[in-house]
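A.,

Following up on our hallway conversation. Structure tokens first:
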């Protein structure tokens, strides 16, 4: 698996994002908070004012505004809303806590009902993009596959977070040449990465259906002979035994580097052949300084614990190399968030690809974006404690 050229990715992503989703006043009215609807009625009765909104998050993030701007363009055009937005931090740039990412200027009566959906479409993207960026930076030579679709509350959320994976990847490639995310598990969002189909290996259900890991590999290869043979090897708790058996069954594919073994060992047990002591020994042999630096029990688990630890990856790589299968690639999955990626990098674990949905924010409160009005009819005014928003705005919004 290789990352596509950055310019090519930008082109295909632009094609993907240009497919417009429906936006209209009826859908907004149904989905917005009731107090905004009531405020709109009050303003309509007593008289409109021109306002300026500042939109920000309370934590540092990576700017990922494209989908919300696309939505604003649609709703402005369809509902004849006379408003302007100003982007303070373009896509992919770091944004400090409390720094507005964008500003909206226009009719209070028209803009007030847009806030709910506006914030929904911005907050999660920016935090997920930040996570994706940090993961790609931690493991710059590793390919990532976005596999978070099953963890999303519907397709709209999936679209938001997988767009965020694209933004984080673009930023990481620009900063340090990291490979980052090269695709997604679902075809609908894979196209933004220049693919016409989703990526992945096989589910545990197929291995259970086949009755053995080798037979599942045979079925997969018979049906999809032109694809990389990606095999899930933890179903029977014999990752090493079954992984080597698959390679022995398909030696030509193994020699050509066309087999990828996916480690997805459950956190309730060690990978075949390992225990806590042997895991410690592996890390002491390959990256002893890592054990001197870990700060928490969670980090130690990522290094030497159950599941897909750094030691597990090293162990699997050593056993494959000993068996003569040095070109067989390793895919790791199971809880690969920013912290785990950093520990895997610290331990120099030889993983080729990571499948993860853990770039999706784990603390939803981090994703809460806020929109405050900071001016009415050209007069700066904001609720007490948020005066700093006005100072930020003056360099972006004319006439404030």
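Then the amino acids I'd put at each of the 400 positions:
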């Amino acid at each position: 698996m290789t990352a596509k050229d950055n310019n090519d990715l930008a082109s295909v992503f632009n094609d993907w994002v240009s497919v417009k989703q429906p936006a209209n006043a009826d859908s907004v009215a149904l989905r917005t908070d009731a107090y905004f609807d009531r405020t709109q009625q009050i303003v309509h009765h007593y008289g409109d004012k021109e306002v300026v909104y500042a939109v920000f998050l309370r934590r540092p993030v990576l700017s990922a505004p494209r989908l919300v701007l696309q939505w604003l363009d649609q709703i402005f055009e369809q509902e004849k809303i006379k408003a302007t937005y100003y982007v303070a931090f373009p896509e992919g740039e770091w944004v400090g806590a409390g720094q507005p990412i964008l500003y909206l200027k226009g009719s209070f009566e028209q803009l007030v009902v847009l806030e709910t959906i506006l914030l929904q479409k911005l907050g999660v993207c920016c935090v997920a993009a930040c996570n994706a960026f940090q993961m790609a930076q931690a493991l710059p030579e590793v390919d990532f596959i976005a596999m978070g679709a099953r963890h999303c509350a519907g397709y709209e959320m999936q679209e938001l977070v997988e767009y965020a994976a694209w933004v984080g990847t673009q930023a990481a490639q620009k900063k340090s040449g990291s490979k980052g995310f090269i695709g997604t598990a679902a075809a609908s969002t894979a196209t933004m990465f220049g693919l016409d189909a989703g990526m992945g290996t096989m589910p545990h259900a197929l291995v259970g259906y086949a009755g053995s890991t080798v037979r599942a590999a045979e079925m997969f290869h018979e049906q999809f002979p032109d694809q990389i043979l990606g095999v899930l090897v933890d179903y029977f708790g014999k990752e090493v035994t079954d992984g080597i058996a698959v390679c022995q069954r398909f030696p030509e594919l193994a020699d050509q580097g066309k087999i990828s073994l996916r480690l997805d060992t459950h956190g309730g047990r060690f990978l075949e052949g390992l225990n806590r002591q042997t895991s410690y020994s592996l890390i002491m042999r390959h990256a002893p300084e890592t054990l001197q630096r870990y700060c928490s029990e969670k980090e130690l688990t990522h290094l030497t614990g159950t599941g897909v630890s750094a030691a597990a990856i090293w162990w699997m790589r050593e056993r494959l190399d000993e068996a003569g299968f040095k070109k067989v690639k390793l895919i790791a999955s199971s809880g690969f968030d920013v912290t785990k990626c950093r520990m895997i990098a610290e331990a120099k674990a030889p993983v080729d690809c990571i499948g993860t949905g853990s770039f999706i924010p784990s603390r939803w409160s981090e994703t809460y974006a806020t929109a405050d009005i900071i001016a009415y009819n050209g007069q700066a005014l904001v609720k007490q404690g948020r005066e700093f928003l006005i100072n930020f705005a003056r360099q972006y919004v004319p006439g404030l």
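The first helix runs from residue 6 to 17. Curious whether your intuition agrees with the design.

B.
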